[in-house]
Amino acid sequence: MLVRLLLLLLLAASSECQSVGKEFVAVFLENIAYYHPSSSNNYFRIIALHNDTQVDLKADSMFSDSGKLASGEIREFYVNPELELDKSQTSLKVVTIMADKNISVEILSYRNSSVQTALLLPKDQLAQEYHLPPIPEIQRTTVPEADVTNAVTERSRFKVILVNADQNQDNIIAVNGTAGFSITLKPKEVAQEWVEDSIAGKVISGTAPFLALFGHPCAIYANCTCGLLFTPMLPTKPTDAIYIIPPAFSADIQVLMPSKGKRETLSSMRVNDPGPVVLQRPGLLLNLISEDDFGSCFAVHTVSDTQNWVVVMVPSDSTGHVHINTAIADTTWSAVSDTKYSWAKIHLDPGKHIVWHESALMAVWFIGEKVQSTMFGNPAARLSIFPDYRGCVLSPEHVEILTQQSSWQESIQACRNLSLDLISLTDPTLQSNIYQKIQNHKDNLTDLWMGLRKSSYSGEWYWISEEPLQHVDWAYGSPDEDDMRHCARISRTDPQRLSWTHHDCCSEARPVCYRHPTLLTI
Length: 522
Fold this sequence. Notes:
Blueprint: E1 4-6, H1 13-16, E2 21-26, E3 41-48, E4 53-59, E5 63-69, E6 74-79, E7 90-91, E8 95-111, E9 114-119, E10 127-131, E11 159-164, E12 171-175, E13 181-185, E14 190-194, E15 203-222, E16 225-232, E17 241-244, E18 254-257, E19 262-265, E20 270-273, E21 278-281, E22 284-287, E23 297-301, E24 307-315, E25 322-324, E26 327-328, E27 334-335, E28 341-347, E29 352-357, E30 363-371, E31 374-379, E32 381-384, E33 393-395, E34 398-402, H2 408-416, E35 421-422, H3 428-440, E36 447-454, E37 461-463, E38 487-494, E39 497-503, E40 510-515, E41 518-519
């Protein structure tokens, strides 16, 4: 039995990325007012990670749509305005989104100059408990408190919007305390509850996982103009996490910390908190991305008739390896004070953009602006946590050095038994990465088979992957004209140097088995 030594931990990217899944539930919040004379425009934006992804959307008998998407395709699905929530406390205006392969889903809602976007959590990432955020202090909406009245839309209280994600069972959702509440939601039912600052920080819990949103239908953002303001609520982490605030958001912000029930003005660019940490500024409620939720690849799509950017935060020593689509990001980076990070606000041309990093993890937010100095936006959809110089990785490369020594031909079969191939070092960057893994291996590895062989017919060396032999790294004296040594190894030619040597194919060595990463189509 082969003992397998993993050089890379093989994880499914979908299980690690909060924004990727196969099933979602969603609602569209009342934007300004359900009776507003201008019609609302509500969309789902769905990105498929794999080819031939079937997506189906349904809201009981009120709405249905479907489509088949290609890898990397982002498609908008328009939703009937009648599905937007009104003043009713409960309704069945819940949309279920199902896919047969992994997707990511964003909400886009706009009416006149009121624009909001949000990134949805997949159903399997929803929680049974959330902490209620403190109420933002917004002049002429929540301040002065004496003027707050639910009879006037722009001066009403903030709401929590609760969605029972279960299709079969009731869900009892409650907040204990003087200003608390309890409500039983039927399958795929949504409820809206007014909240007061006195219950900020308290736990809202259900008998099963549920979707929770926090927002206001028409919060004042400029002069006497109001608009929809909301964000999905995220579960609290078991321990403190590190949140870094990019200076792009530092003006006119309040920092909301639901787990502590605290609302603060900005005093530091770093927050230690179990989260979530939410920034509020005119037009924007934005979930920060904690360090342990950084990713290597993100998807964004611009909103028409607005200015669009991404805000990217990356380790300061890795700013030169950020790509937007196929090009290195052409921007100026600025250090975030007292941290190891730098940030940039990068303008986007209309359309789809994939932001990815070759070697580091980073945070990316999508930001738009329709009214000057009034932002909207959301954390960008995180598609991967595996940096790679080749692109946006959906499943990472897999490298194994088998412990059993065997001939070159037997090594090919041993790798194939694991759904891998004897490695072909087809480019210098891949070779450098593999050399580094071998050098760092706990065993003192000296000779390892790779997938390079000399043709007995032509005398030419070739990769068994059938890729062209475009570079070589032969050790001094290799290869020579010895007809008995037609197979190549990665060999330690001195303590600090690896190179290629040629050997008898029937001699024995440990093989390096490999599988290329699966990349998103850009």
